[in-house]
Amino acid sequence: MTIFDRAREIIMNPRVTWQAIKGEAIDLKQVFLNYAAPLALIPAVSSLIGISLFGLRMPAGHLIRAPFFESLLVSVLTYAVSLLAIYITGYIIYGLAPYFGSKADLNLAMKLVIYSATPFWLAGIFSILPGLGILSILGLYGVYLMVVGLPELLGTPPDKVIWYTAAIIISLIVVNFILSTVIVASVFGPMYMRMMAL
């Protein structure tokens, strides 16, 4: 099965796909290298193209293109942060599982967060054109995938699915915020300030 087949299946038929994922004996390293890593490139590369080729619209209304080297650095860091956030969130899902009556299985927790991120990564293509960035909201479909996936993969009781999902989303937001602030903002902040001064 190709990466595109799996992405299409998880989006179009999540319940059946989650059941198939649960029964697969695929090494977690393979899932990261053959699925997460390539798909996480979509928003990173799209953003690189968008800010360096098409530019950013500044508050004053003029369009400015970011320097390629700095844009590349930001994209690489963003890519690394997105994968690191997925990895950390997988551990958080694993750690929280007993509190929500779920199976504490690290392998399945990682698969849950990786495959639930599929819509977010695919929607990253809209970062190519600044005006289409708003369409990245389509990535929120990943929340639905997580809601469907929790009972299928981790056996989460129906009355705890929403609360577990909320805890996971809050954890993911906090992890992304911390990682982005520490790693990405140190490069993107000065670059953006220089662009504002032009």
Written description of the protein model:
- The protein has 198 residues and is mainly alpha-helical.
- The protein has one domain.
- It is 73% helix and 2% strand.
- It contains eight helices and two strands.
- A two-stranded antiparallel ribbon has the order 1-2.
- Strand 1 and strand 2 form a beta hairpin.
- Helix 3 packs antiparallel against helix 4.
- The N and C termini lie far apart (49 Å).
- The mean pLDDT is 85.
Give structural attributes:
198 residues, mainly alpha, two-stranded antiparallel ribbon, 8 helices, 73% helix
Short note summarizing the structure:
This protein is mainly α. It has helices at 3-12, 14-23, 28-54, 68-96, 106-116, 118-123, 141-154, 161-197, and strands spanning 56-57, 63-64.
- Measured on Cα atoms, how large is the radius of gyration? 18 Å
Largest sheet: 2 strands, antiparallel
Content of β-strand: under 5%
The low-confidence runs, each spanning 5 or more residues with pLDDT under 50, are none
* Order of neighbouring strands in the sheet with most strands: 1-2
The helix tally amounts to 8
> Can you write the helix and strand succession as a string?
HHHEEHHHHH
The structural class is mainly alpha
Mean pLDDT: 85
Task: Give a topology summary.
Blueprint: H1 3-12, H2 14-23, H3 28-54, E1 56-57, E2 63-64, H4 68-96, H5 106-116, H6 118-123, H7 141-154, H8 161-197
Antiparallel strand pairs: 1-2
